[in-house]
Every structure is written in C-alpha cells, then in structure tokens.
Amino acid sequence: MKKKLWIWLSLSLVIPGLMIVTSCAKKTVKADLDLAQTQEDEAAKLAAEKAKLAAEKAKQEEIARQRALDEKRRKEEAAMRKITAARNLFMNENIYFDFDRSDLKPEAQEVLKRKAEWLRKNHSESVIIEGHCDERGTNEYNLALGDRRAQSARNFLNDLGIKESRLTTISYGEERPADPRQNETAWSKNRRGHFVLE
C-alpha cells in the first residue's frame, strides 16, 4: 500500500510537472515564432520603406532631369528666336537714296555700319544687295541706277572689312516697288537698297 501510495504520489507530481514543462516549452516556441514573425514584418516594412524612398528619389531625379531638358530647350529656342530676329532686322532695314542718286546718305552709312558689325559677328553669312529705283525714267536707266546703288552699298561694306566674296549685287530697277503708288512718298520708299541673306 505504501508502494501504491508512492506511485500515486509520484504520478501526481510528475504529470503536473510534465504539463508545466511542456506548456512552458510551447510558450517559448510560440514566443520565438512571434519574435521571428515580428522581425520579418519589420524587415518587410523596412524594405518597403526603402523601396518607396528609392522610387521617390528616382521620381525626383526624373523631374529634375526633365526640368533641365526643358530649360535647355527653352534656352535653345530663345537663342534661335534671337538669331531669327537679328536676321530679320538685318534684311528688313533698307537704305534709301535721293532721286537719281547712288551716293550714300549719312543715315544709309549708319545702317551699313550696323550691317557690317552684324556680318563680322556672323562669318558664315553672305548677303545679296538689291538696288531698286522708283518708276520714273526708262527701264534701262533704272536698271543701271539700281546697279550703281547696290555697288555703292557693296563698296562701303567692303571698306568696312567685309570680304567681297560675301557680297553679291543685283539691280531690279523699278521692277519691284516697295510701294506701288505714284507719289513722292511711294517713290522715296522705292529708291532703296535691300539686303537678303543667302
């Protein structure tokens, strides 16, 4: 009976002890699993945050690159507009002559000095100098007068250092009037030297 009591007592102590030990082990394993899961979650969050930051950085770099390209394009377009405006000014600024004359007036000389300066800065440009007249006089006379006017402008530009090879002359006489009316105002506009860039 003592033996049974001892067995009974031993079992009553061992079984709860085993239950406690296995219960604690499960909690430890479960705690380890929870810790591992938490670490994985944190690593995933960190990786997601890094990916988000990298994507944001790439987006900002792309925006900066696009802005730089846009700024470069704007500068190139502005430079082209400036060049076009300068070319147009060069071609649209005529010189004018007195009736039946081919000598250069002081105002015409000032215009030609500006044109010579522009041509010095733009070495690749060549110019056609057109001589024009009003409608009075014969066609032959006006063609000769237009030629003298164009040559007068060419000689002046040449004296200012512009090579003759960059200057071509042509006379249109009375064929291409700037103003087709038949009065002194129109005739004064038609007695001109006109410049065309090649």
Oligomer, anyone?
Answer: single chain
Low-pLDDT windows of residues: none
Question: Would you identify the CATH architecture of the largest domain?
Answer: 2-Layer Sandwich
Q: What is the helix content? A: 55-70%
**Residue-averaged pLDDT, rounded?**
88
Query: Biggest sheet, strands in spatial order?
Result: 1-4-2-3
CATH-defined superfamily of the largest domain: OmpA-like domain
* Number of alpha- plus pi-helical segments: 4
Please trace the helix and strand order, writing H or E for each element. Answer: HEHEHEHE
How many structural domains does the protein architecture include? 2
CATH topology of the largest domain: 60s Ribosomal Protein L30, Chain: A
Overall spatial form:
rod-shaped
Q: Could you name the CATH class of the largest domain?
A: Alpha Beta
Task: Sketch the major β-sheet.
Answer: 4 strands, mixed
The tally of strands reads: 4
Topology at a glance:
Layout: H1 2-92, E1 95-96, H2 106-121, E2 127-132, H3 139-159, E3 167-173, H4 184-190, E4 192-197
Parallel strand pairs: 2-3
Antiparallel strand pairs: 1-4, 2-4
Q: Could you explain how this protein is built, in words?
A:
The chain has helices at residues 2-92, 106-121, 139-159, 184-190; strands at residues 95-96, 127-132, 167-173, 192-197. It is of the alpha+beta class. Strand 2, helix 3 and strand 3 form a beta-alpha-beta unit. It starts with a helix and ends with a strand. The protein is rod-shaped and about 160 Å long. It has a four-stranded mixed beta sheet. The longest helix has 91 residues, at 2-92. The mean pLDDT is 88. It has two domains: 42-92; 95-197, 2-Layer Sandwich (60s Ribosomal Protein L30, Chain: A).
